[in-house]
């Protein structure tokens, strides 16, 4: 093997700029170098670490000559530090140094030794100043089209937006490149909500550090320049007291405001606890399709695949003349072990709480011997029937004047009986709301309490969304929690809404929740997390005060 060339290239990322954020190895490497090669500003940033090193400094756009000079000096036998801010391998000098070496026929075993020393890149340093916006899948995109065709950059922006990545934009704007950030915002707004949180960080951890928290829609109203990094949140990112936070997904399995978890440690990695995973079922809870429409649930039952059992069944049925052999052969196959269970929530009407004998009788007949009838606390009955013809069941039930709702994580209007119709002025608006959003799929089942007078005797104000009709207009309540030891009433967010405004507002609230809520996240938690829904701002429920009791009380 040929002798290695003696020199060494130390390609150093020194992080955001402050010495405290530089790695020990980076500082050591600068100290042991004979020559420092860098962009003027970077050399100034590390000047406090320099002793007697030779300095090769150049201006912007001269990075190729810097890399060539660094390689030349290393090939002369010198230890050469090539410095980049951030990480040398993220839009830094590492790639260019390797490319220059390779052009010269460099081989790692025989050419100058190369050591790339990692640093904290802007996506990390800027994220730390914002809170935790990069807690989920993220990407970096440089908007500089000096070396990359804009068409390529635009395609990447669009792909990242569609894929819901958190995006860190590097080099967003310069004196001459001003349109790129405008075009980027336009592309992003086609795929992300206007109120998506955006962080603008200038000179992170340097003297003129400046942090702005804004939204995708308003980001261009702020100063963005060469030293700014732009961090765009994903569809789950939220702002809490000036911090930008992207959830990792813990809400899917854990209750973060409780020390008692529904899933025990040994259950947490089981496929049934992760229905969203590749191995899990993608068909949704209870077989309900993602649109929330009523459908038959496919329930796997024990598979009688044993050949002996099949043959026994065959002979019994053949003996009874019940089946043809060919039909039974089908019955013994894999498909025969799947039974369709149709499940639906049935009520006598939105406002009507009385059942007729005919309705009760129909329910009993449809359930038959093999079906199930279950009464729920929500003024409705769950009917489960084994059938492959759910439409027939639907037709029978609706024909008898019954109201059907899909089961599972959907919206249901839970109305009072309007004093048996005596106070029925607001019923049309409950029905309109039901037409618009009843049955809509949401991250977690959502009951909307709708009460026909200020008495609110059906408990609308304790539901996650509560509506109370009062003197011709509506009061709207959001974020109630009516179960658990930390149950609390909902927050009154609006009073005196006109019927039209009420219907619009509730629809918007629910659609925002449907779109942006995390899987399994209840509405009250979602409202607390995002802080503002459809313009209604969340306020924490007052903490309970526990009076000091005299001993013995
Ligand atoms: S909330 Fe009012 S209208 Fe509805 S049942 Fe109770 S008292 Fe009657």
TrEMBL record:
Keyword tRNA-binding listed: no
Keyword 4Fe-4S: yes
Record domain Tetrapyrrole methylase: where: 8-218
Record pathway: Cofactor biosynthesis; adenosylcobalamin biosynthesis
Keywords assigned: 4Fe-4S, Cobalamin biosynthesis, Iron, Iron-sulfur, Metal-binding, Methyltransferase, S-adenosyl-L-methionine, Transferase
Class in the EC hierarchy, top level: transferase
Region (Disordered), start-end ranges: 262-293
GO biological process: methylation
Database matches in InterPro entries: 4pyrrol_Mease, 4pyrrol_Methylase_sf, 4pyrrole_Mease_sub1, 4pyrrole_Mease_sub2, Cbl_synth_CobJ/CibH_dom, NO2/SO3_Rdtase_4Fe4S_dom, NO2/SO3_Rdtase_4Fe4S_sf, NO2/SO3_Rdtase_FeS/sirohaem_BS
EC annotation from Swiss-Prot or TrEMBL: 2.1.1.131
CDD domains registered for this protein in UniProt: Precorrin_3B_C17_MT
Domain of life of the native organism: Bacteria
One Pfam family cited in the UniProt record for this chain: TP_methylase
Coiled coil: none
Compositional bias of kind Polar residues: 283-293
Gene Ontology terms, MF aspect: precorrin-3B C17-methyltransferase activity
Span of domain Nitrite/sulphite reductase 4Fe-4S: 428-532
Biased composition (Basic and acidic residues): 263-273
Name of the protein in its database record: Precorrin-3B C17-methyltransferase
Phylogenetic lineage: Bacteria, Bacillati, Bacillota, Bacilli, Bacillales
């Amino acid at each position: 093997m040929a002798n290695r060339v003696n020199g060494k290239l130390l390609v150093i990322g020194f992080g955001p700029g402050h010495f405290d954020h530089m790695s020990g190895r980076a500082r050591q490497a600068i100290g042991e170098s004979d020559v420092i090669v860098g962009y003027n500003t970077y050399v100034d940033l590390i000047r406090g670490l320099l002793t007697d090193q030779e300095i090769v400094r150049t201006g912007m756009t001269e990075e190729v000559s810097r890399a060539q000079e660094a390689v030349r000096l290393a090939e002369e036998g010198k230890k050469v530090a090539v410095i980049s801010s951030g990480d040398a391998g993220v839009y830094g000098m590492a790639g260019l140094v390797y490319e220059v070496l390779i052009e010269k026929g460099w081989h790692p075993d025989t050419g100058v030794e190369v050591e790339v020393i990692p640093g904290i890149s802007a996506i990390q340093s800027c994220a730390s100043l914002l809170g935790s916006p990069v807690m989920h899948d993220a990407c970096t995109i440089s908007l500089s089209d000096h070396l990359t065709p804009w068409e390529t950059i635009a395609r990447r922006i669009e792909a990242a937006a569609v894929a819901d990545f958190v995006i860190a934009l590097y080099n967003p704007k310069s004196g001459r490149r001003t349109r790129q950030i405008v075009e980027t915002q336009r592309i992003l707004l086609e795929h992300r909500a206007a109120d998506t949180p955006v962080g603008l960080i200038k000179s992170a951890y340097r003297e003129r550090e400046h942090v702005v928290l804004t939204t995708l829609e308003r980001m261009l109203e702020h100063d963005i320049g060469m030293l700014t990094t732009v961090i765009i949140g994903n569809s789950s990112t939220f702002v809490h007291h000036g911090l930008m936070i992207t959830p990792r997904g813990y809400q899917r399995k854990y209750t973060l405001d409780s020390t008692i978890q529904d899933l025990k440690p040994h259950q947490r990695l089981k496929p049934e606890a992760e229905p969203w995973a590749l191995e899990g079922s993608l068909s949704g809870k209870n077989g309900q399709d993602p649109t929330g429409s009523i459908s038959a649930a496919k329930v796997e039952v024990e598979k009688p695949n044993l050949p002996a059992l099949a043959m026994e069944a065959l002979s019994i049925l053949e003996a009874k003349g019940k089946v043809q052999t060919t039909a039974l052969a089908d019955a013994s196959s894999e498909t025969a072990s799947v039974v369709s269970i149709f499940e639906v929530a049935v009520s006598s009407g939105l406002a009507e709480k009385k059942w007729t004998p005919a309705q009760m009788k129909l329910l009993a007949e449809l359930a038959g011997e093999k079906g199930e009838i279950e009464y729920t606390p929500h003024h409705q009955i769950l009917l489960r029937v084994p059938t492959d013809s759910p439409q027939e069941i639907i037709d029978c039930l609706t024909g008898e004047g019954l109201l059907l709702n899909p089961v599972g994580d959907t919206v249901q209007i839970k109305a009072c009986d309007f004093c048996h119709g005596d106070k029925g002025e607001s019923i049309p608006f409950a029905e309109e709301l039901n037409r618009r959003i009843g049955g809509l799929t949401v991250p977690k089942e959502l009951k909307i309490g709708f009460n026909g007078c200020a008495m609110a005797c059906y408990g609308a104000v304790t539901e996650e969304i509560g509506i109370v009709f009062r003197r011709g207009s509506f009061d709207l309540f959001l974020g109630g929690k009516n179960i658990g030891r930390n149950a609390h009433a909902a927050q009154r967010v609006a009073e005196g809404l006109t019927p039209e405004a009420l219907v619009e507002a509730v629809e918007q609230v629910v659609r925002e929740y449907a779109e942006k809520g995390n899987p399994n996240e209840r509405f009250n938690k979602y409202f607390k997390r995002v802080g503002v829904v459809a313009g209604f701002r969340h306020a924490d429920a007052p903490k309970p005060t526990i009076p000091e009791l005299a001993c013995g009380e």
